[in-house]
Design goal:
Number of strands: 9
Oligomer: single chain
Structural class: alpha/beta
Helix content: 25-40%
Largest sheet: 9 strands, mixed
Strand order of the largest sheet: 1-2-3-5-4-6-7-8-9
Distance between the termini: 34 Å
CATH architecture: 3-Layer(aba) Sandwich
CATH class: Alpha Beta
Number of helices: 10
Length: 290
């Protein structure tokens, strides 16, 4: 364990939560990003005698417990996972929730390779939202070179790309897509709910077009990779349709079909954990279903 000593402080075991599952909260340090908690969900029947796929999720503090979140909402991830596990619709799975870093969330989540290709004045508006500069590449290094090795060393995982997934919503969708494009040998799939294509909080075409140009060059081949996208039609989600149409067209042009690509629109759905929770079953079954 010396290999992980610089990045692991301690493990705190929390009581069993809904439906008898375990969540372990692990405060960590990293040489790439600021320290934060990770939240490891284990199924009630977790056993070292079995092997598990792993789903890495962003915004970990919003996943399980609405009594501790800023908006009193949650993904209801534990309830959904328990339901899918009991009905055997999903592979054996461990979920690793990675807490976001508050003020640096956009800097960590917005695809770093895209920033320099955004024209003015949108580039200036994007820069205002991350005054410390973009650090998404370091955030992904943390996940790939520190967090994933720790999880694979301490839990009974497959460890290969075919069993390693990543996902999130809003900017978490952006960084999940960027993760697969940056490390296609590590992640085989991503879900990107209510993907925040606009970067800023006003409608624009410059930032989404820069992202589409990046995907045109970096999107991994269809073999072995799978992507899920969606968005609602109200609140922030009302901004995303024009960009999502362009992204959908690009994926189809690259050869993605119904088995490895899905993009849905949910009428009347908002940009909120409450609405993401309602469609999480479909997301997980598509990405990690048997």
């Amino acid at each position: 364990m010396k290999k992980y000593r610089a990045f692991l402080i301690a493990i705190i075991m929390f009581p069993l939560i809904a439906f008898g599952q375990q969540i372990k909260t692990v405060p960590i340090k990293s040489k790439y990003v600021d320290g934060r908690n990770i939240r490891i969900w284990l199924p009630a029947d977790y056993s070292a005698k079995k092997k598990y796929a792993v789903l890495y999720m962003h915004d970990g503090q919003m996943l399980f417990d609405s009594t501790t979140t800023w908006n009193h909402q949650e993904w209801q991830l534990d309830e959904t996972l328990d339901r899918l596990t009991k009905t055997k619709k999903m592979r054996d799975l461990i979920v690793v929730g990675i807490d976001n870093n508050g003020a640096k969330r956009l800097a960590e989540f917005f695809p770093q390779a895209v920033v320099g290709t955004v024209p003015q004045p949108e580039r200036a508006e994007l820069d205002k939202l991350m005054p410390s500069g973009p650090i998404a590449d370091n955030y992904l290094k943390f996940i790939v070179t520190e967090l994933k090795p720790y999880i694979d060393a301490n839990y009974s995982t497959y460890g290969d790309a075919a069993h390693t997934f990543i996902g999130g919503s809003s900017l978490g969708g952006m960084i999940s897509l960027y993760a697969v494009c940056s490390y296609p040998q590590i992640f085989s799939g991503a879900f990107c709910m209510s993907t925040h294509w606009t970067g800023t909080f006003v409608q624009n075409t410059a930032i989404p077009d820069a992202m589409v140009n990046y995907l045109d060059k970096k999107l991994p081949s269809t073999g072995g990779h799978r992507f899920y996208f969606d968005h609602g039609t109200i609140t922030l989600d009302s901004l995303y349709a024009p960009a999502q149409v362009k992204v959908d067209a690009l994926f189809k042009r690259k050869g993605y079909g119904s088995k490895n690509f899905k993009s849905l629109v949910f009428e009347g759905a908002s940009h909120s954990e409450r609405d993401w929770a309602k469609r999480l079953d479909e997301v997980l079954v598509f990405l990690i279903g048997k």
